[in-house]
Specification:
Length: about 425
């Protein structure tokens, strides 16, 4: 089937995530890694699946397909999702654990928190390699995503007003109150092809070429392939493809392709899917689980927070200033628009650590920073660009950060223009 003419919908603006996650001095060493990892997880979690032949389906325009995705009322499904991410980074599967072990006593008042799973460390783990997920959803108030591990699994469960993060190995869970309905998950990273597709389609504007690029067969389902391409120069993204079920119009597969060629940077898709109602037990915490309240962990952290050296990170200029092109809140600003958007924020004068400071940094972190950082200079001064196949981050020596799915030259140009 020949591709349809490009469709250019009206601009849609999405609320940006607030990245005020780092309070501690040590956290700034992980800024480039965190930005790259979280961005990768938000843009999409991952797999290229073999096709058994492209099905012959009725022609549909890109506009019609987008409208059908938006109008899809399928709210019940379960299945397996394979995730493969190739950002061009060394393996950082153990990086979060290494970092947490060094700060565990400091952050948690001496408590052993190994059994309390941390969603942020899961994001770091998903930033490289291949992973398998089990997913289930039954309407807006019941969702479950399980990351299948070698020795244990970690599940994020939402059921009405309750949410848990559960580790099957330790049989421990952290419980918190969850917003129900549409409010739930709006600030959470996307975890399924449907959520990833929704995030991508929110960003579609006149800078995007949209077309239907043939058909495919994913997890036994006939699908249309929707293709998004940037019209602007300077982006590291060659295209985003979304395979959409031809019957339910649920996105089945999501892939991000880099301008450097090769396999997709991010490739997430169902290997098995069932559109029947999942069992109610899917959304219940297993019996015998040891539950810790998230509020109690926060209280413990608050009591102990004054005992460590916060450094200048806490004194940063997170809440100062407005960006040239827009203020994202919390001190984060946005430069540019569309595929060339760059997020920028000020760490409060703290650039990359010097050699003496690096002595206190876990070896895994130091090696990671050295492996994908390039020194750059310009009108803004000097700094380091941390490169991946998708997201690049410039950290200037005076503590300003510029990040986006753009080239190194685009980051340097943005920093020069902001001076």
């Amino acid at each position: 089937m020949a591709p349809n003419a490009p469709y250019e919908p009206a601009p849609v603006r999405d609320e940006a995530d607030d990245l005020r996650s780092g309070r501690r001095k040590a956290a700034r060493y992980l800024v480039p890694v965190a930005v790259a990892g979280v961005a990768a997880a938000t843009i999409g979690l991952v797999p290229a699946l073999a096709s058994s032949g492209d099905p012959d389906l009725p022609e549909i325009s890109a506009q019609e397909l987008i409208e059908k995705i938006a109008a899809s009322d399928t709210e019940q499904l379960s299945g397996h999702v394979k995730i493969s991410t190739d950002l061009g980074l060394p393996s950082i599967a153990g990086l979060a654990d290494s970092f947490a072990s060094g700060l565990g006593d400091e952050m948690k008042g001496g408590k052993d928190v190994k059994g309390a799973p941390d969603p942020q460390s899961l994001l770091l783990e998903l930033a490289t390699g291949s992973h398998n997920l089990q997913v289930a959803t039954d309407g807006p108030d019941k969702q479950k995503v399980t990351l299948l591990g070698k020795d244990s699994d970690v599940s994020l469960i939402h059921n009405g007003d309750d949410a848990w993060v559960y580790d099957s190995g330790s049989k421990e869970a952290v419980h918190s109150k969850a917003e129900s309905g549409e409010e739930h998950g709006k600030d959470e990273p996307a975890a399924t092809p449907k959520e990833l597709a929704e995030e991508a389609l929110k960003a579609v504007d006149p800078s995007t070429k949209v077309s239907v690029d043939g058909t495919s067969r994913i997890a036994g389902q006939d699908a249309y392939k929707l293709k998004l391409e940037p019209k602007q120069s300077g982006s590291t993204i060659e295209s985003v493809t979304i395979d959409v079920d031809a019957d339910t119009y649920v996105p089945l597969k999501f892939a991000v392709n880099s301008t450097d060629g090769g396999k997709p940077v991010i490739d997430a898709g169902f290997t098995k899917i069932d559109f029947s109602q999942p069992a109610a037990s899917e959304f219940a915490l297993p019996k015998g689980a040891k539950v810790t309240e998230a509020d109690d962990l926060e209280k413990d952290l608050g009591k102990h927070e004054g005992k460590h050296d916060k450094g200048d990170w806490d004194k940063g200029k997170w809440d100062e200033g407005k960006g040239k092109d827009g203020d994202l809140g919390g001190g984060m600003n946005v430069i540019g628009e569309g595929w060339s958007t760059i997020a920028t924020f000020d760490t409060g004068g703290q650039g990359m650590p010097d050699k003496d400071e690096m002595k206190d940094v876990p070896a895994e972190v130091g090696g990671l920073l050295d492996s994908f950082g390039d020194k750059v200079s310009g009108d803004f001064g000097s700094g380091t660009v941390f490169k991946t196949r998708l997201v690049n981050v410039l950290m200037t020596d005076d503590g300003k950060v510029y990040a986006g799915a753009v080239t190194k030259d685009a980051l340097v140009q943005a920093a020069n223009g902001a001076k």
